[in-house]
Amino acid sequence: MKWMVFAAGIWLAGFVACGRQPGTALRNLTPTTVGPFTAVDRGKVYDETGIYDYMDGAAEIYKQYDYRRLFVRRYQSREGRTFLVELFQFGSPAEAYGIYSHLFDGDSVDVGQGGFWTGTAAGFWKGPYFGYLRWESPGAEQADVLLEAARRVAAAISETGEPPKWVNRFPEEGLQRVRYFHDYVLLNAHVFLSTENVLNLGKGTEVFLAEYQTEFRGNDFQPNVLLVIYPDEARARDAAARARTEVLKWDESESIGQIARDLWGGVRQKRNFLILVTDAPERKWVSHILDALRSEIQREMEGLSS
Question: Which helix (H) or strand (E) holds 109?
């Protein structure tokens, strides 16, 4: 009889825990009131398939980042103004950073482990979560309300985590931000290289896009530096060859050269790593980036073999 009571207790505890997940747990991360705004409902959870019901085509972007679930809650003031809190949960902090970096727009703000304000919406990442808060009512773009809500949600999240480690391995001078993704469609959203997947990006690849700003001879330049980590060396070697011939339009033997009248580029492959530089102001800048990242890759290889 005792074992039946014990087993029932375990079952009930599991039932209660499952009942609290994921809706209750995510709801508890969102406030009931923010200034003059009050939550109008208990919120709704969208699982790995339900996200298509909420955002249809855009869901594929989130699915690329190991998406797990989304919690949406609406807030309204007495005047009828409304905003939404969209809290996404991903499989790891690295993937949460990835969607944050992909959607980053506007100005940096101090929310969570990194945030931004676009003028009409706020976004942040913390641990395996990405929060996006946006106005539904036209003309109600008030930063103070959304940022207060964002900071309260971020403060309620206890987990923290690290971004992908290569985010912090790029030369810092002139670096604006580093975006992280896996697919060439997302790459083309920031830097258009080709209508085809010439770098063979997709499942198993880690892509880092470092966006720089530098001045040369009185002119401003915005070079881009791509670092791609492939599952194997053969795939990286093939991508390097196609980058030379189909992106930079060079002979396969070249590693640095001009890609336009006043722009330089470069490509280098080492083991399963590929480095691609575009839109640089001079050969020296490209060489510096390629050498710096090659040293970081060498250090990584030595660390793995030790």
Answer: strand 107-109
C-alpha dihedral sign at 150, 156, 159, 160? positive
Q: Mean pLDDT across the stretch 146-173?
A: 97
pLDDT-derived band at 14, boundaries 50, 70, 90 = very low
Question: Are 91 and 212 contained in the same domain?
Answer: no
Contact 147, 111 (CB under 8 A): yes
The answer to whether 250 and 244 have CB atoms below 8 angstroms apart is yes
Q: Are residues 143 and 178 in the same domain?
A: no
Q: How far is Cα 132 from Cα 159, in angstroms, rounded to an integer?
A: 18
* 21 has pLDDT over 70: no
For residue 98, give the H/E element and its range: helix 93-103
Closest CA to 259 of 270, 268, 246: 246
Structural domain count, the chain: 2
CATH of the domain at 119: 3.40.1000
